[in-house]
Amino acid sequence: MLGIDISTSGVRLVELSLAGKQDLRLERYAAEPLPRGAVVDGNIENIEQVSDALRRVWKKSGTRARLVALGMPPASVITKKIILPAGLSEDQLEVQVESEASQYIPFALDEVSLDFDVLGPAQNSPEDIEVMLAASRREKVEDRVAIAEAAGLKAVVMDIESYAARAALDRVTALTPKSTLGQVVALFQIGAQVTHISVLLDGVTIYEREQPFGGNQLTQDIVRAFGLPFDEAEARKKAGELPDNYAAEILAPFLESAALEVTRAIQFFFTSTPYTRVDQLFLAGGCAQLPGLLEMIAGRTKIAAAVLSPFQGMQLAAGVREAQLRNDAPAYLVACGLALRRFG
């Protein structure tokens, strides 16, 4: 099964396999850009353009797998923890969940795709269980399923992008479990248009938020400064083929803005929760590898910071180029988390 991440900027594919009993191997990964406007705010605006990009990335990767795990943007999914009596049968549980769901979902139940997962005994009430409820508009789920089908693939898992990212992060932090035990860890995924912030304590999300800030702002600055079309500006930004004054006049102010956004987000976390510290900060997303960004954020926040590679500790298939992967990896956090569902 492949992990397929459909974002504003492109489609990313990851295929993992088991190497031995427990080790994972990255078999292949690939990306294909999307035309502007094909995906807006997590909504599929042009199914044909997105399915064409998915078909191209599938061919480019060289995989034969046709089953895929897809992700929904967090803003498109309502999640809620509910308490139900323990000892219910599967059918009784389903009826109870639907009954509870109708209180939290502002749509008719026949318009939503609904799922739930039993988390375990309720904390202060041993005779009850805690259940996680997730619901999304059915049409949004069907759009993604249709994209897979149009590309000749079959969607078998629909996850939430932020949960997939967390699964990938959990795997990396589990490699050194003692170092993160009891620590407050903040993950900043800086995408094309939005930065998604997750704060976790011992693997449990204690805070989530999105901020309208991303790499497209830097691309727009390049467009204005050098008079380039947007797509060319984006390509040159990635390839590092810009005039000599780019670093000082365009990149440096963007890095300042990014560091300010991260600092503000952390302050907002402190003022809106009982927590007063962040012990470790991870950067992911397409912007994470911008030269100077990590150092600027670490300097401003005074927090230990690192760029997150979701493939850390994995074996690499013969076709994966390690040097290229180091640069690409942070953008594949969600796709890697989705690919991990193969082993769930």
UniProtKB/TrEMBL annotation:
Q: Which InterPro entries match?
A: ATPase_NBD, FtsA/MreB, PilM, SHS2_FtsA
List residues of the SHS2 domain: 1-169
**Source superkingdom:** Bacteria
Report any Pfam family annotated for this entry: PilM_2
Protein name, per record: Pilus assembly protein PilM
